[in-house]
Design a protein that fits this description.
single chain; alpha+beta; three-stranded antiparallel beta sheet; 9 strands; globular; binds FE2/S2 (inorganic) cluster; iron-sulfur
Length: 200
């Protein structure tokens, strides 16, 4: 039997996330799913995921699974936050106005996030679904411009994204990386897949 597109994209990101030293914390729903009845399992698969981000250090990324997708949580350094303000003219949609992957209102800002320090985004390229690689190191390097400030490079066709998941101009990916609904329960507890609006 051939893979469905969902199977393929999941395998792609699983392989990719194994290479970047992802922190595996935060899988609240997933480990308990096997003992559920089918309808409960389906519910758990779509459920919001609660994540402990207390161990995430500046400049690091962790990955959690939500609805079969890799969700990245990046803790940006002050320098990385500052750099986001300087590159609007190089971006295809700096203010996240495109609607294929609508950005929640609370992330429609320069940081595409609730807190400047933390960015939450789906790690699937908006071109054909590959998993972009971390390129957090600033400066000249292979396949990237010399004034690179840190971000992500999709190895499939070369799309580049900044550390807010905003896609650079003239790249195959048509949209910024998706920002899922999310909210903070405290400084160290984050919920992905639900926000204050969905609670209202
Ligand atoms: S899938 Fe990312 S650039 Fe094509």
């Amino acid at each position: 039997m051939s893979d469905t597109p969902a199977d393929t994209s999941k395998r792609t990101w699983l392989i990719a996330s194994g290479c970047v030293g992802a922190v595996g914390a935060g899988f609240v729903a997933v480990p308990f799913v096997s003992s559920f009845q089918p309808s409960e399992r389906a519910k758990a698969a779509g459920a919001a995921v609660e994540v402990d981000i207390s161990a995430l250090k500046p400049g690091e990324k962790m990955t959690v699974e939500w609805r079969g997708k890799p969700v990245w949580i990046v803790r940006r350094t002050p320098e990385q936050v500052e750099a986001l303000a300087k590159i609007d003219s190089q971006l295809a949609d700096p203010n996240s106005n495109r609607t294929a992957y609508p950005t929640p209102e609370y992330a429609k800002n320069e940081w595409r996030s609730i807190k400047k320090e933390f960015w939450v985004g789906v790690g699937i390229c908006t071109h054909l679904g590959c998993s972009p690689s971390d390129k957090f190191q600033a400066g000249p390097q292979a396949s990237l411009p010399d004034d690179w400030n840190g971000g992500f490079l999709c190895p499939c066709h070369g799309s580049t994204f900044d550390l807010a998941g905003r896609v650079f101009k003239n790249k195959p990916a048509p949209d910024n990386l998706e920002v899922p609904q999310h909210m903070y329960l405290s400084d160290t507890r984050l919920v992905i897949g639900e926000d204050k609006n969905s609670k209202a």
